[in-house]
Amino acid sequence: MSIIPTARNSGRSWALLLVLCGTIFLEGSDVAMLAVAVPTIRADLGLTTGTAAWVMSGYVLGYAGFTLLGGRAADLLGRRRMFLTWLGVFLVFSMLGGFATDGWMLIVARFVTGVAAAFMTPAAMSIITTSYPEGPQRDKALLVFAGVGAGGFSLGLVIGGLLTELGWRWVFFAPVFLAGAILLAALRLLPAEARPEPAQRGYDLVGAASAAAAMLLLAYGIVRLEHRGEGLGLTLGALVAGLVLVAAFIVIERRAKAPLVRLGIFRKAAMVRADLGALLFLGAFFGFQFIVTLYLQELRGWSSLQAAIALIVMGCDAVLAPTLTPRLVNRYGSSRVIFGGFLLAIVAYGLFLPVGMDWSYASMLPSLIIAGTAFALAYGPLTIAATDSVAKEEQGLAGGLLYTFTQFGSAVGISAVTAVYGIAAAGTDGSPDAVLDAYRTALVVPVVMVLLGAAVSAFGLRSTRNSSQRKNAAAAARDEVNDGVPG
């Protein structure tokens, strides 16, 4: 399968890239639209606070729990097959969510939709990384992919507000139409691929089961931290059980004849740094956005649509990622651009720390614009770094690892700010000043996360410098040989 643009097929190639980018737009906008609609859904169906929260968390649980397995399935069972199959599942269960009449139906629909995204998104990304040669072409495609995903989330906030005004069920039905259009286009544009040969030593079913169970338990434990008032014992139990299963998974993979995850892939320092950086960056970004949304709606009394329109300026990353970022990456390299993105994020979140009760939108604007710019600089290059130098047959796995880290990052970020806010607000009189102080305390979490991310990404600068020195030395040696100078 190849979609490398040439003089003869460039139109078809870019059309297919647009279809694959449509998938990440679908995933991002779907999450954002539901986030805006949940209060209306809760009121219409008479859901409890806990049930309404799990409508959102169900998707995260399914996505984070199965992304690793989904990415590897694309490598072993066929990227085209996984993409089309799970895009169809996404479509069906999004439609079923629109017909839901009870909370449990919504939770099930969102969980399965999250599982579908866990298989569909890494497959789409691995189609891109295996179709473009490593270098500027692939980098540009990945930056466009990341930018479109970010734009989907930003636009989804506004679209969700508008659709909720028509009726919250349209938040579920709108993705059905988009998914259907993407599916029809993909059937026509996505090249056929040879059926993958059965694994000579079988499939690692035990490893797959232990990985899925471990990710589910860890995601469940992290997500439960958002739901204050629930049993702490069950939360800690889920986290401990998840960690035990991670240890068991490592043992299983070491002994497996055909491991689901080749543990040697974690020796790729650049990939591991990128995955950790993505976890910290996405966690900080979503944690910051979550607290700002609460500040605007709960403390300032803005409507969900007003808050969404206010935050859309953060969507500048959708424009900057495919235009400015590729030029910066070509000139300075991914590592320096990633580090710059983290530095901008520190500035953005730090500027919002002294937020006041009567801040004007103009006072908030610098933080929001800088945060969007930071996302444009960091997220796409992190995607590049997470897949560079990874063998073609493991590109699905690399994508699965990246999206596993990003999903856990978003869950950790939101859970952490929620927990800190709850602790800070506990025992206060609930006055607006006390609530504002709790928000300020919670805003420290994203600042700390991007500081840690900057420290992690700084190691990439050293590696880049050492790599450049080796390349320069090699070039000098070649010049000496070519000039006949003894070495």
In this structure, how is the largest beta sheet organized? none
The percentage of residues in β strands lies in under 5%
Low-confidence region ranges: 1-9, 466-487
Number of helical stretches of at least 4 residues? 16
Amount of helix:
over 70%
What radius of gyration results from the CA coordinates? 23 Å
Task: Give the strand tally.
Answer: 0
Distance between the termini: 45 Å
The global form is globular
Structural class: mainly alpha
Order of helices and strands: HHHHHHHHHHHHHHHH
Can you put this structure into words, describing what you see?
The protein has helices at residues 10-45, 49-77, 79-98, 103-131, 136-166, 170-189, 205-224, 232-255, 269-299, 304-311, 317-332, 334-352, 361-387, 395-425, 432-442, 444-483. Helices cover 80% and strands 0% of the residues. The chain has 16 helices and no strands. It is an all-alpha fold. Mean pLDDT is 84; it is low at 1-9 and 466-487.
Summarize, please.
The protein is mostly helical.
Write the layout of secondary structure elements.
Blueprint: H1 10-45, H2 49-77, H3 79-98, H4 103-131, H5 136-166, H6 170-189, H7 205-224, H8 232-255, H9 269-299, H10 304-311, H11 317-332, H12 334-352, H13 361-387, H14 395-425, H15 432-442, H16 444-483
Helix pairs in contact: 1-2, 1-4, 1-5, 1-6, 2-3, 2-4, 2-7, 2-14, 3-4, 3-6, 4-5, 4-14, 5-10, 5-11, 5-13, 7-8, 7-14, 9-10, 9-13, 9-14, 9-15, 9-16, 11-12, 11-13, 12-13, 12-16, 14-15, 14-16
Main attributes of the structure:
single chain, 487 residues, mainly alpha, 16 helices, 0% strand, disordered N terminus, disordered C terminus
